[in-house]
Write a structure and sequence with these properties.
Number of helices: 12
Structural class: mainly alpha
Distance between the termini: 37 Å
Radius of gyration: 25 Å
Order of helices and strands: EEHHHHHHHHEEHHHH
Number of strands: 4
Largest sheet: 2 strands, antiparallel
């Protein structure tokens, strides 16, 4: 979906690319009240929105919706950009676009969070940014709680509530081969729940594997270790553990 040419009626293959000189000229025209220049700036920077929404394509959201929300962030960036600051527009705009999309995803989170909790969390974020600008350091939780006159525990609960859920199948590392997912980093301490018939089937299938494959699966699924822990124990990379684990499981499925 993210590779389609037309998004929200916009032909992304024909989007213009503005030079730095053209950008400055258009920003000066916008400040002078030229509305057409503002439209040209928006159209000339839609590629920024396209690059940002690539990061959010695994959330199950429609690309068109993300694009529209990203455009709101782009427009806010254009309206608030200060030419006197020694910073590229893209450096300023990308965090604005990301922030707008994240707010949209939080507000449309399938896990419903009460409005009061969201308000506390957003206020805490604003206070944190204000204190960083004021003191040039990361504020403590107690300082934020004091500014808001809210118990420290309530802020922690509110911030936890607005965190986006992470899929077990979200990739966290890719070395050009098989990706490593969140699920691959989770150990399983509850390894005594298989019934006797499953145990027999698994034991028979394990006999068909090589010694290294048996060791990896034993450490991963019988001792509940993560792929990183297995890699350290047997002296290979985590990516190799991931590939061997998947190959071994595929081999076992032929016999179960």
């Amino acid at each position: 979906m993210v590779n389609k040419v037309e998004i929200c009626g916009v032909n992304t293959a024909k989007l213009p690319v503005l030079t730095n000189a053209q950008m400055r000229e258009l920003f000066h025209a916008v400040q002078a009240g030229d509305k057409s220049a503002r439209g040209k700036l928006i159209k000339g920077n839609l590629r920024l929105v396209l690059s940002v929404i690539q990061r959010f394509t695994n959330r199950g959201e429609y690309v068109d919706d993300l694009f529209q929300v990203g455009c709101i962030g782009l427009i806010k960036a254009i309206d608030n950009f200060d030419l006197n600051q020694n910073v590229k527009f893209s450096t300023y705009a990308v965090p604005m676009i990301i922030g707008e999309i994240r707010r949209y995803l939080r507000d449309n989170n399938p896990i419903r969070v009460s409005r009061s909790l969201r308000d506390i969390a957003y206020k805490a974020i604003q206070v944190r940014e204000s204190l960083i600008n004021k003191h040039s350091r990361e504020p403590s939780l107690n300082e934020i709680a004091g500014e808001l006159n809210v118990p420290r525990e309530e802020i922690i609960f509110a911030m936890d509530a607005i965190q986006e859920p992470v899929s077990l199948f979200e990739p966290i590392y890719h070395d050009g081969g098989d990706p490593i997912f969140v699920m691959d980093q989770i150990g399983d301490e509850k390894n005594q729940d298989l019934n006797w018939l499953e145990r027999i089937a698994v034991r028979e299938a394990l006999r068909k594997l090589s010694d290294r494959e048996k060791l990896i699966l034993t450490l991963r699924f019988f001792e509940g270790k993560t792929q990183m822990e297995v890699a350290e124990e047997i002296g290979i990379s985590q990516a190799q553990v991931s590939r061997l684990e998947k190959a071994a499981l595929n081999h076992m499925r032929k016999y179960i």
